[in-house]
Amino acid sequence: MYSRFPRFVRAASVTLLLLLMLSPLSHAYLFRDLSGTIDISGVQSETDDVTTETLRQQYTASWSRRMMPNLTVRGSLRYFKFDLDQAQSSSVWQEEWQPSGDLAWNHPLFMLSANAQRRLSTSNNAAADLTSDNWSVAFHTKSFKHPKVTLRYDWDHIYSDNEAGDRDTRDRMFVAGVDYNVKSHALTYNFSTRNNDNVISNLESSQSQHLLRWNNMAFLGAEKRLRVNTNYSFSYRSQTDKRPLTGSALQLVPILAALYAHDANADFGNLDSVTALTDGNTSAATQPNIDIGNALTDQNIGADLGFARSVGAVYVYTDRASSDLVGWRVYISGDNLNWELYTAAPTVEFNAGFNRYEINFAQVETRYIKVVNTGFNDIQTVFVTELQLLQEIESTNETESTRSQASHLADISASYRHSEKVTSSADFSYQHEPSLSTGSSRDNFYYSLSTRWDQSRIVTHVLKWQQGFQQFDIDEHDLRNNSALYNLLVAPLDRLEFSMSANLRTSYIGDLKDQDNKGVLLVASGTPLIGLNMSSEIGYSRSDQILANSTSDIWRFRFSMDGAVTRTLDAIFSFSHQFTKTQQTGRERTRNQYSASFNYRFTRTIFLRGAVDIVDDENTYISQNYTVSWNMTPRLSVSSQANLTSDDGDENTQRYSVNANYKLGARSSLYITYSSSDFTEAGGNKTTSAQAGFRTGF
User: Fold this and answer.
1) Strand 512-529 and strand 532-545: pairing?
2) Which end of the chain is more exposed for a tag (fewer CB within 10 A), N or C?
3) Is 294 helix (H, G, I), strand (E, B) or coil?
């Protein structure tokens, strides 16, 4: 196969040269509405004396023309070919054709569009051949004088034609929405329905959702000192699954609070609350973003159930189709601090119809639960949108199960400016979730009161009180939370600030006290020199999990500084220390983390960047990253990277690479890369590779 390598490169180079020479003529005549790209690269690598050669080709062409003042026609074609030849093994190849076309009618009052796309993937493994067909129609109005209407219909079919094919899914989705704004009122209604049929597994799923929202903001009083914001929302979700005969079915488990943290030490550490993980929106990414794409692992995604409940499955929704290569581990906890690995090998399947990972495992009873992603995702960026927990129950219908959930939420918040120095605010909310297929109804009531007093230009006080109630059908599981917060801010100088905060939080399950958390935090920050920022903090907290009979004392200290050391050198350094002691067991745990990074400009064209991160926990983990880049000429640039990791377990890894890029023109470049990776001490392989290729666009 690789005897064709040079011949193909020569032919592609000639094609590229002709395109560059004819570009003025093409843009003026034949290719006025045509654009595209060419990306060709070859790689030769060696892993443990096994040589592998690959050739990667990607071509895209797009054509677009405005046929009438409001009508635009577009068409595109993408071709991808990947060839791999490995010594002592058979050759591997993969080929994809992806044609698509769309029409767009852009009227001053509305937009109407239609799109059709096919993706045909073939390879040397016929069982992996797939065809994906998709078409969609969308309509939305533009007038601000009338309600804005949105309509969309999508149809997908993913299947394999060969006899060994194990994929045949059909997915249909319809979305309708209305937005209306008048004066200070905003009204939104959205309806969506989705049907997914898996012919191979004989599973049919249908899902519908209604969402109604109303918002009003008003400023009252002669000087508009009183601001009142009122919200109401109603949501209803229903899903029906038709499946082969089984004796059980899955139903949703109510979540008190969704939790998240990015932490490589999954067995220890608190997760923070992220409300967007349970807002019912399975399309929009959460804020902050939770990215499980590429090699971004150790995303801790979990939930607090309020009290111990049975859980047998976790569904993690994503904003786009994701890879089946992603693995998940399941952890449980009684205090959201100390986590126990429940299973490292749950049953995981990515449901392409609903864009979600379905993580199933033997049912467990726990209050806190989380899943942590592992493995390499071949999709560059994949954001998490929603989290669902499910439990297995005996099915009352052997072939069909339906689960539904509804929620009414009313919220009113107000703030009043007493004077230039004193401002008070209050927030009240009530949520009702009626008893549907979840088995119990839930009522949530929450209020908070706060006051800010700017005593002087230097001193500010903030006092806040919060209380929340949750009532279930099961009385002994009713929840109550009380919390108080005081914050003192002192700014004696423009470049110097001090703050002290103290908090107390108590929670009850029924009449029994469940948790008692208290803490204090002191922070100092300032800019002693122009361009130099420094901050330090020290804090103490006690977490008393009364029903779990666990009390932990936690001391935290952190120091950081960043700034310009010289005119050409910027640096950042931070140190954090955490000491935790569990009273009942006497277990002590210390974690120190040192981080440093710098950016050094040798000359106007030579840059050096570096970062070192050391985590000293029960093991010591060291990560080093360095990059040097040199813009040798306006057309030629070179760079080099080094990534080194090590820990006490001697699982050391080293990765090095050198890159060169030469601009042939405004949209064309030639690139060469050499890399070396050594994972032998971590149980992996040693690999060296060289890559050469070019990209161009027209």
Assistant:
1) antiparallel
2) N
3) coil
CA 589 to chain CA mean position, Å: 30
Alpha-carbon torsion angle 41, 42, 47, 51, nearest 10: 170
Residues 184, 216: contact at Cβ < 8 Å? yes
Joined together, the tokens standing for residue 541 give 């907290």
Which 8-state DSSP code applies to residue 7?
A: H
Give the Cα separation of 80 and 99 in Å (integer): 12
With tokens 């001193």, the residue in question is 459
CA-to-CA separations, 90 to 4, 124, 150, in angstroms, rounded: 18, 10, 52
Pairing of strands 299-318, 442-454: unpaired
pLDDT of residue 577: 94
Q: Report the C-alpha gap between 409 and 275 in whole angstroms.
A: 14
**How far is it between the farthest Cα atoms of the chain?**
85
Task: Tell me the per-residue pLDDT of 25-79, one tens digit each, with 9 for 90 and over.
Answer: 444 444 578 888 888 888 777 776 777 777 888 899 999 998 888 999 999 999 9
For tokens 């010289």, name the residue: 566
Q: For residue 326, report the phi and psi dihedrals to the nearest 5 degrees.
A: -70, 130
| Token pair of 497 as six digits | 């600030």
**Strand 400-417 relative to strand 422-433: parallel, antiparallel, unpaired?**
antiparallel
Contact of 136 with 154, CB cutoff 8 Å: yes
Picking from 84, 161, 96, the residue whose alpha carbon sits closest to that of residue 122 is: 96
Structure-block tokens of residue 616: 């000293």
Tokens encoding 556: 């935290």
* Residue 12 pLDDT: 46
Q: Is residue 405 over pLDDT 60? A: yes
What is the DSSP code (8-state) at residue 382? -
d(CA 552, CA 584): 9
pLDDT value for 212: 95
Which residue, 196, 119, 122, is CA-closest to 154? 196
Q: In 293-346, where does DSSP find H-type helix?
A: none
Taking the model in full, what pTM does it have? Answer: 0.74
Can you list the alpha helix ranges (DSSP code H) found in 534-620? none
